[in-house]
Structure prediction request, 194 residues.
Amino acid sequence: MGYEGAYWLERPSRELQEHPQLVVDLLGLAPDAVVADLGAGSGYMTQRLARAVPDGKVLAVDVQPEMIELLNQRITEEALTSIEPVLGTEADPHLPDASIDLALMVDAYHEFKYPHEMMTHLWDALKPGGQVVLAEYRAENPLVMIKRLHKMSEKQVKRELQAVGFEWVKTDESLPQQHLLFFAKPMATAPQSS
Prediction:
C-alpha cells in the first residue's frame, strides 16, 4: 500500500475486523524481546508491540520514506522511546544479523515485490529459534470481502516460507478474517537457497 493510503491503516473499523491487541497477545512476547514489525506503515501495530515489550525494542521497517516520517510523528506524539524506525528496501529489511526474537507482518507479506529475498534477509536477522508471524486475509474463505490480491492461503504461505528454511509451528484461526501463521528459524541450520 502506498503512503497515500495510510488513513486506511488507521481506520476505526480495524479494531473489529482485525483484533490488533489479540494479535499482540497471541505472540506471547517477553517484556525484553526485540521485535521487528515489517511493513510497519504508520505504526498501527508498532505502537502496540512497543507496549508489549517495555524492556525491549521494536524495529519498525517500511520501504517508504513517507511512512517512516508518519511513524516518527507517532513516536514523538506518543513518547514511544523503544521504537526504532528502519528504512528497508523492496528486497532487504536492513536489520542486523541475529538481532531479533520475532518478526511480525500484518497484511504485509503479500505486498512484497521480492518475498524470497526479503525472507532470506529476515532469516539472517532472526536469532536462532526466532519466529516469524504473518497475519494474512484468508484466501480460502470467499466470504472475506477483500480483493483476491490481498489474500493468501495457508498452503501458499507455508510453501513460500518453508522454501527459505522456516519451519511451520502453528496456524491460529482466532481472528475473524485472517490466518495468523507462526514459523520458526531452527536453532542450528542455514537458509535454503533456490
